UniProtKB/TrEMBL annotation:
Domain LYC1 C-terminal: 199-389
InterPro entries: Acyl_CoA_acyltransferase, GNAT_LYC1-like, LAT
Domain of life: Eukaryota
Protein name: LYC1 C-terminal domain-containing protein
Signal peptide segment: none
PANTHER family: LYSINE ACETYLTRANSFERASE (PTHR34815), N-ACETYLTRANSFERASE DOMAIN-CONTAINING PROTEIN (PTHR34815:SF2)
Pfam families the record matches: GNAT_LYC1-like
Organism from which the protein derives: Zygosaccharomyces mellis
């Protein structure tokens, strides 16, 4: 590789973006054809979370951060040939910096995804050069003396499918294990049905998201304050919950279903109880599992009630799993920590093979904070599938 010939660019031309998807579809198309995958990426690229920077209310409320939000596409070119590419989905985050009692602020969370070098160009250092340029690009924005505070506290995240590859760029792994429920019928009988259902819930509809996300938001903020109190010298951060990320997941589920050979059933995306405790999910058609994106349990109810509601929420998740002919249910331990829910832990340990519990995640979470902080001084809250992209 002669570095002088290479150009790292932000690309905005839809044709060029399409080329990167036609390339990286080789890795990520899952059950779709390349054409459908390219179209899926185009559609997702037009969704609310990807176009956050264009939403009027966001521009008004966050004038300094808004221009940096949404999806961005980058390519490394050798002449006119794209030899490596990647994307970032930039979202609003919350953070508390060390010593700032009670002060929750907004920052930019830059999630890197879609890092891809076509096979014929691999092993030549292209991805390495591109990620170096990408991080340098954002570091320069962050280190600009005129940068607003939320940009100065910019945090990178990513979900590595290539182990510790990103360590050399300053990323620190924060792996979260995954649990899979494969014995769905036995789980239904021995766990879910071991309680009296409240029967006051319903499957989540589009119009429900804003009120549910508001509750999640309050919970995220409460937890950040708790974490800060317990770790006053740490930098604590989280991605902010957002209706549009759930809509992005939903669009993804629906698009894939429409384009694969699978029973075309109507989909539901979550279940909410009378007290607004809720569970949101994503259909992972490729791995035939229903993936739990978010669990929210009303904080004002007792631990016993929470356990019962969790059973009822899982009952409805299983209903969806069966209705959509999926086979398993998956959840990340940080979203539903087995240690916290002993009934659930007991049952899944009884039912499942060891390999289904605390399994290595195919998406290894990693983060790269501002160099002001040492990695052991950083706490990433809500490091779960919902932050993934
Ligand atoms: C990972 C990938 C982007 C690397 O592209 P590249 O241009 O060949 O990267 P570089 O030449 O800079 O680096 C090659 C390095 O990647 C490492 N690598 C490639 N695949 C890997 C894997 N599955 N696990 C761990 N490391 C891997 C190689 O071992 C090599 O390591 P070295 O630098 O220590 O020798 C490319 O292999 C690819 O597109 N893979 C498929 C898509 C993918 O998995 N992307 C990552 C998503 S998080």
């Amino acid at each position: 590789m002669t570095v002088q010939d290479l150009r790292f660019e932000k690309i905005t031309d839809p044709k060029e973006i399409k080329v990167t998807h036609a390339q990286n579809g080789a890795n990520w198309k899952g059950p779709l054809s390349i054409e459908s995958y390219v179209e899926r990426e185009r559609v997702l690229g037009q969704s609310g979370i990807a176009k956050k920077n264009e939403i009027n209310e966001i521009c008004k409320e966050f004038p300094e951060l808004a221009p940096m939000l949404g999806i961005r596409y980058y390519a490394l070119k050798d002449g006119n040939t794209i030899v490596s590419s990647c994307e970032t989905l930039n979202r609003l985050g919350y953070f508390i910096s060390p010593g700032e009692a009670q002060n929750i602020e907004y920052n930019l969370v830059v999630c890197i995804g879609g890092v891809f070098t076509p096979e014929e160009y691999r092993g030549k250092g292209y991805a390495r050069y591109m990620i170096e340029k990408l991080t340098e690009h954002y570091d320069n924005i962050r280190d600009d003396p005129k940068a607003p505070r939320g940009i100065k506290q910019l945090t990178f995240t990513l979900y590595s499918e290539v182990g510790e590859y990103y360590k050399k760029f300053g990323f620190e792994s924060k792996h979260v294990p995954v649990h899979t429920i494969t014995q769905v019928d036995a789980f239904l009988k021995n766990y879910c049905e071991q309680t009296v259902f409240k029967d006051n819930g319903k499957f989540v509809e589009d119009s429900d998201y804003d009120s549910l996300v508001l509750l999640e938001d309050q919970e995220f903020r409460r937890n950040l304050l708790k974490l800060h109190k317990a770790n006053p010298n740490a930098f604590v951060f989280t991605v902010k919950p957002d209706t549009d990320i759930y809509k992005w997941f939903n669009l993804r589920s629906s698009f894939i279903l429409k384009n694969i050979n699978h029973p075309q059933v109507p989909l539901t995306f979550g279940y909410s109880m009378g007290d607004k405790s809720h569970m949101l999910w994503h259909h992972n058609w490729g791995s035939e599992s229903l993936l739990i994106l978010k669990l929210y349990l009303n904080p004002s109810i007792s631990f016993q009630e929470k356990n019962n509601i969790l059973k009822e929420l899982f009952f409805n998740a299983i209903k969806e799993t069966k209705a959509t002919k999926l086979k398993h249910i998956e959840f990340w331990d940080e979203e539903i920590p087995l240690e916290k829910f002993t009934d659930l832990s007991q049952i899944v340990h009884d039912l499942e093979d060891r390999s289904a519990l605390y399994a290595q995640n195919g998406s290894l979470s990693a983060m790269r904070p501002s160099p002001t902080y040492k990695s052991e001084e950083i706490i990433w809250d809500n490091n779960t599938k919902f932050s993934w992209f």
